[in-house]
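Milestone M4 deliverable, item 7.
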Amino acid sequence: MLTISSGLLDDLRYHTFSHDSAKFNNAPVCSLTDKQASHLLAIIDQLDIIATHTDEEMPHRYQTLLAQLAVGYEFLNYYRYEQDKQWTATRHVEIFNHFCELVVRHYRESREIKFYANRLNLTPKHLSKVIRMATNGLSPAEWIEQYVIAQAKRLIATRATQTLQETAYLLGFSEPTSFYRYFKRVTGMTAKQYRDSHS
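Output delivered:
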């Protein structure tokens, strides 16, 4: 059993390519071959090694843990492929996965629900219903916000020489002040406070 914090789990959701995590709630049991199990156990062993280090010893420890967890999650999704064919065939999951792909591709361009609903040929109301079902209650706007903030945190934490203004422009904000307000509204702290805590 691997136990992680809810905060780390939330961040993990925005660092993986396989976004149909609701299937694990519906069918948490996964049958693995011995070889597949050994691969996943090796990833967990690496997580254990990373976890034994302090933030001082490993400055980007959190991001490293997140990356290793994402690798494990992607492998698990790959190993579940046959088992999940029936799940992935459902229309709602197809819509949700396509929505996630669009967010990854276009979040710098737009953070409006209508923008994504139009590209999926859906009404914003129907898209909202599908996303809430797939994420156990998150609205499309909340999903987009969490993805944008995850990218912002990644940039702030891993690019020490980059200014917050440069981060704002990289994320598609036309004005840095808009990014500062956005970050504060979603996270409850300023971007500067977050950068200082990860400096």
